[in-house]
Amino acid sequence: METLFTDYLADLYTSVYETVLNPRKRVFFGYILLALIIAGIWLKWREKTRASSIARTLFSPRVWWSNSAKADYKLLLINKAILLAIVPLLITKIALATVIFQQLYELVGSRPLPGSLLPDWAVPVCFTLFLFVLDDFARYFLHMLMHRWPFLWAFHKVHHSARTMTPFTVLRTHPIEGLLFTLRSILVQAVSIGVFLFYFGDQVDLVTVLGVNVAVFIFNVTGSNLRHSHIAIHYWGWLERILISPAQHQIHHSTRVRHFDKNFGAVLALWDWIGGSLHLSEPKTELRFGVSDTVEADEQSLKTLYLRPFQECWHALLGNRHQ
Ligand SMILES: [Zn+2]
Ligand SMILES: [Zn+2]
Fold first, then answer.
1. Can you give the residue range of the structural domain that contains 57?
2. Whose atoms come closest to the Cα of 168: which ligand?
3. Does residue 290 lie within any of the structural domains?
4. Could you give the C-alpha distances from 283 to 45, 51, 231, 245, 280, in angstroms and in order?
5. Which one of 30, 202, 221, 230 has the fewest beta carbons within 10 angstroms of its own beta carbon?
6. What secondary structure letter does DSSP report for 285?
7. Ligand 1 centre from 156 Cα, in Å?
8. What's the pLDDT band for 28 if we cut at 50, 70, 90?
9. From the CA of 200, how far away is ligand 2's center (Å)?
10. How far is the CA of 116 from the centre of ligand 1 (A)?
11. Cβ atoms of residues 251 and 282 within 8 Å
12. Does residue 322 carry a pLDDT above 60?
């Protein structure tokens, strides 16, 4: 029992430092560093901020050390501890991929001959793209459901209750949301692996940089961390219909009613465009972040953030939506 607990603590320690030291994680320090450089260039060339004010704007304690940001850091640590205990109980992507592979075998019958469908070089490219697009769509879809279904919104509100945003706000979620997104990731990977192994066998491989899907890597080195920040980098209109800009995700966090339930996408804006929830950035509009403009005294307390969602979920299930 004692060794179990010590192992758990060791795993927790690894999991926490991996969050910033592993390039597979969104808040890897290298990506944050690049985001800061991109933000600095943006402030200098686009916003014409004086050089002396750039560092003050980027590292403002009003953002990084606000009550909201402090709640982000606490949630990050506590959620790690909770999910580390739950994840081993879940089905693994390999087990699920095996089930999908076997089901395909029963459905389709014989497998194609190796190399008969696509040449060797094309399979890893298709697999990498397929995984990226399916993963991005699944993120969009689950995110949209978390807004549209009141009993899920009760939990997703924790993410939206951030008043200031730093790259770590991406991890400011209720553990129930963390669990749903983990299950989503297992499902997406299992479907991709199961289907591709069935059709292409050992031709399957992932195109990676530093062990990361190359498409995800490009997303991360081009400022993905600025989505959760106070630096409103926007793209050209045509590009914001294809890729979600940092400013568009900030609109997603805005307290203005006209911004509610817009821009659910993670990387691709296409899903929102097709689904009618796309909202282009508004460079001239000053945004306030949160669920509403009314600030409640205890809104950043751990008790409110962890327990209130269960109560609101219960009310929602009884058909009584509490905003
Ligand atoms: Zn949301
Ligand atoms: Zn967000």
1. 2-231
2. 2
3. no
4. 15, 21, 11, 12, 9
5. 202
6. P
7. 7
8. very high
9. 37
10. 43
11. yes
12. no
DSSP 289: B
Strand stretches in 194-269, DSSP E: 208-209, 212-213
Q: Name the pTM for this structure.
A: 0.93
Pair 270, 242: CB distance under 8 Å: yes
pLDDT reported for residue 1: 67
- Where helices occur in 87-121 by DSSP H, the ranges are 93-108
Question: How far apart are the CA of 125 and the centre of ligand 1, in A?
Answer: 31
Ligand 2 centroid to Cα of residue 44, in Å, is 25
What is the CA(173)–ligand 2 centre distance, in A?
Answer: 9
CA angle 250, 61, 248 (to 5 degrees): 5
For 225-276, the pLDDT digits (tens) are 999 999 999 999 999 999 999 999 999 999 999 999 999 999 999 999 999 9
24 in any annotated domain: yes
- Which ligand places an atom closest to the C-alpha of 264? 1
> Tens digits of per-residue pLDDT, 173-209?
999 999 999 999 999 999 999 999 999 988 888 888 8
For residue 98, report the distance from its CA to the centre of ligand 1, in Å.
33
Residue whose token pair is 């990226």: 132
Indicate whether 109 pLDDT > 60: yes
295 found inside a domain: no
What single letter denotes the amino acid at residue 72?
D
What is the domain count for the chain?
Answer: 1
Say how far apart CA 296 and CA 294 lie, in whole Å: 6
Single-letter amino acid, residue 315: H
Task: Specify whether the CB–CB gap between 12 and 22 falls below 8 A.
Answer: no
Q: Answer yes or no: is 142 within a domain.
A: yes
Task: Determine the distance separating the centroid of ligand 2 and the alpha carbon of 184, expressed in angstroms.
Answer: 17
Q: Which ligand number lies closest to the CA of residue 162?
A: 2
Query: How many angstroms is it from 110 CA to the middle of ligand 1?
Result: 43
